[in-house]
Fold this protein.
Amino acid sequence: MKQRYFIAALLLMACAQAVWAQKVTLYKTNGETLKYDVSELDSIVFEEKVLPVEESHEWVDLGLPSGTLWATCNIGSDNPEEYGDYFSWGETETKDIYDSDHYKFNRGSGMMTKYCTVGSFGSGGMTDGLTELLPEDDAATAIWGDDWQMPSIAQVEELIDTFFTTSKWTRLNDYLGTMITSKKNGNWIFLPATGYVDGNAIYRRDSYGSCWSRSLREDAPRDAYDWGYMWSGIFWGADRRYMGENVRPVRVEKIPRVLVSKIVLSDMTLSLLPDETKSITATVEPADAFYPNVKWESSDEMVAFVDSNGLVIAFFPGTCTITCRAIDDSGVYAECQVTVEEPIEE
């Protein structure tokens, strides 16, 4: 600021001396010198450069394996407990009526004109193979900018997976909703019970809330996947695309995580008799994996069951596969083949 005033003073002094000097000399900060005849100048105008102010939106790291960062509030709200705006799936503006006749991608009788994977649901049999919203139809991207998007159904599933978070129906500043808290770092987001809009009426506000994902229901593309929450729990599902629901954005940028690269089991095969038990231990590599936890499952629990700690319990003769899976985004797993033998008769 001082530098600008100094330059202005020099210019004024130069103009005052123009009667006898007939020259104006400008000395730029990069060392360049500019000289003008006074007769060449019509006027001197100082312009203040105004930079656009980008609206910032807060996000929280819930310690999820994918590194997904969740916004702290819905679109249209400034605080976590506020309801925010309602959108039809694939629309980027609010409206007065939320029904099929006022839906952007409907052409009579519920025939879709965009985002359709089944010809019988498409206008004139149209299919375009689009299964996730494009940026121009994503309310989060269109309103908050390229750093944001609506969550995919996979990101929603991760958010509400009890391996990673807990959910609790509670109040925040006198607003009812669901608090989702990370088991990894204790961070949280609050989802207010906003209800939903059908036609021109809001239903179930303060007892239920729902938000859209950006994912289409491929087998029935008049619907898109969403997630609901109420006193009895939190779950994902699907609803008609014209319905008015809230949008809770996620960041396009993710925090990188060290994923599991390998699981080594203490046993690759087991041979057991009915009612016998055997513990399998799993070693996860690398040692600094962000989520080293694993889950166990049996391909046939009538043959052998496995608990959450890798304890195998044999039941009836036959074979099955015990699988140990990493619960992060790596997709890594290891298997143990189990044979339950016929008991030997004495």
Remarks:
- The chain has three domains: 2-40, 59-251, 262-340.
- DSSP finds four helices and 23 strands in the chain.
- The domain at 262-340 is CATH 2.60.40.1080 (Immunoglobulin-like).
- The chain has a mean pLDDT of 89.
